[in-house]
Amino acid sequence: MKVSLSAQHIVKRYSGVVALADGNLNVESGQVVALLGANGSGKSTLSKIITGVVAPNEGQLLLDGRPVTFASPQAAKKAGITAVYQELSLIPDMTVAENIWLAHEPLQFGVRINRREMRRRTDALLDLFSGAFHTLDADALVADLPPDEKQIVEILKAFSLKPRVMILDEATASLDSRQVDRLFNLIQQWKAENLAIVFVSHRMEEIFRVADRATVLRNGITVGDVAISETNERELVNLMIEASATPRRHERTVAADAPVRLSVRGLRTQALKGIDLEVRDGELLGIGGLQGQGQSELLLALFGAIPWTGEVTLSGEPVHFRHPRAAMEKDVAFVPGDRASEGLLYIRSILENLLLPSWQRYGIPLQLDRGRQDATRIADDLGLVRPSMDAPVSALSGGNAQKVVIGKWLLRNPKLLLLNDPTKGVDVGAKAEFYNLLNDLRQAGTAILFYSSDDVELLELCDRVLVLHDGKVSAELSGSDLNRANLVAASMGSGHMNHEPA
Amino acid sequence: MNLLRLQRYANRNSYLFALLLLVVVLAINYSLQPSLFELRVLNGNLRNWFPLMLLAAGQTIVIIGGGIDLSAGAMVSMVNALLVGSLLTAESTPDEVLLGALIACGAGMLVGAINGFCVAYLRLQPIVTTYATSFIYAGVALYVLPRPGGAIPADLARTYRSTPLDIPFVVYLIVLLILFWLALRATRFGQYLFATGGQPNAAYASGVPVNFVRFLTYVLSGLFAALAAIALTISVSTGNPRIGDKMTLDSIVAVVVGGTRLSGGQGGIIGTVMGIVILGTIRNIISFANVPTWSQTLVDALIIIAALTGPGLIRLIRRRFQ
User: Fold this and answer.
1) pTM for the complete prediction?
2) Which residues of B touch A82 (CB under 8 A)?
3) Of A14, A65, A407, B194, which is least packed with CB atoms within 10 Å of its CB?
4) Chain B residues with beta carbon closer than 8 angstroms to that of A139
């Protein structure tokens, strides 16, 4: 049975912030539509609206030409729309078969689960990927599976619902090339069976292999809908960035003779596949790329929070931190991206939050007066707007709360500062103050490694930007190469584009 | 392949440690009390343990679903008080006994539903909620039966103690309990239960009615508390409004000793049955080993802590070697 799904003029606002201003997407039976866009362009919001995970503020969805609204993911599933997400919806302590058939188990006499039938159908599904995995079988516990096999189970789980429209949201991210080949063969087969597929991916090469059409989002607006056969990588990248790519505002230089603070050779973790980099004192090195390409892992590894292999030298001295405390002792500081869960104790006072990493300096019993003086000095330096030092952090605005997160490390005078997407959810005014702070720190000679999911921020602040893709550095951009077009192209894993697009 | 299957079986059926412990404690008990496996002794032990076994069975279901029921013991007290204080007398006819048992079960399910409503739909914390409601149920027990006393028909106790085909009557009931569990596991509710306790968000995204499953676990816990109260009432043939108060923590300890994970999503009633036998046997050992009275509680506690550490240790060792 043929199907067509059309999202028209979708608007979605999250508490005042427009995530999607004019989202449009059309897909029909036997078609693969690639959904593309840079970070924050609204592609995940659009796919969540189609699958009923979030409700749109304006616009409409048409299924087979009739307007529909989905109150929940279940409602969308009933209408035949399923999604394969990256953040997995599997239950670790249950088997592969139990997970795939959860909530639509084959039954006997209307009550008893027919395990033999469930197993048979699971084996039939697994056969679709046979040869492309090692240990996967119907009775394996999901908890024991490697990430790629979990992803396969997730894909099969979505397919087991016999969908009419299937959304693959970065479903290939953890698959190896053989598994991707198999998935693409299946997609061809499913197309022939009248399935409509929306393919969200950051790998250009895959989009050109599998998609029939590409829909491009930019700043929440659908700016292009082109046939893959009539376009090329360059054209898609140009669609994804503003026609007038933001020029770099400031030229910055670091003294080439400044001492190298941090040097990394062949750093590997589960997500990273060999990273080399060097940061000098007073340098602000940006880490860019699409989200989830290993940027956070890189910073966490350097801070000793996750295990890694490779060579790291700090001021010429080889180090291998196995615990954040070891890194802290060498004057390394880490500012986490998720303020609420990693950066702050919300119900405790500003004073306590600022002093948390530094208590050991204040002796036994704690010299509270000296601590209060130091904390107040830092708070004043940062221009922290506060009711009092004893007010809970929860009373502060987002920007001021972010200052506390950074301030608690400044008390320790860090020589190397690791920033993990620190301006996420911070308002514009607070961002500007934060940028000034970073510049002051650079003037003082602090080496800064700065991961940001905001491309503009990287372009405006950094001397050099390393773009990560799939756990590797796909480009190192500096000078005139550091522009929007190159940044986006490198994020998508495609080759280095040396010139500004026309 | 066989080794892999065995390993998977061990992973899924977390009561293997309990089984080992069971053999050890039974062996120790047997060496101290050679009459342990004689029908009379066996029957006596099982009869004493069975009410707690039922209560812990209900507790198991709640814990697998990701909750906990601290009102279990108070529900036992309440149903015991209802049975002896208002539903039955020593002269009740079999019809009245049946009706009384049904009303008791209904009362258990009703108070279980109150717990379930508060936890599943009002989203209150299970520990605090069921601790608070336990005082309500204990209050009802004292209201219905202000002081210990009362009686029930003597025939009931006679049946409960009987040994048809030279097998204690209680053994048949335990077999029924295990069959109930296996049947439950074979239904969709069984899958939902483990999914809800294991990863509620993923379960919700997969279409599992997470709230309703949580609600039902508490209703089932109430039902099992009522059944436990009926068994206990028959066993002691009298009423006491505080009879179940101490059973709550024992029921939780038995569940954990039986290999059910306290954070939910893993375990089963078969392990809990073993957990109860282990707890009971440990107490036998203490009384037969001439442990001085004043340190019995201490020894009891130490052994339970050791038993609780076991499954965690195994998991730790397994992770080390992976």
Assistant:
1) 0.73
2) none
3) A65
4) 5, 8
